Amino acid sequence: MESTESLMRLRDVEAKTALRKSKIYQMVKDGDFPAPIALTTKSKAWIGSEVNGWVRDKIAASRQGEVA
Fold first, then answer.
1. CATH topology of domain 7-63
2. Which of 8, 39, 42, 59 makes an SS bond possible with 12, Cβ 3.0 to 4.6 Å?
């Protein structure tokens, strides 16, 4: 069975999350955002389901009155 998993490049992650590159990488470093995977020695991408899950969690937290 084939996976329907997708990979997202940085520009796509920025668009999906409304965050900029520096904030994304700072949050990765702090353990507050999914880390990218290496595609090649110079290329990285994020796993789409992990980014989408992070967005869903942020929306849910916001709706419950939590501010990160």
1. Recoverin; domain 1 (1.10.238)
2. 8
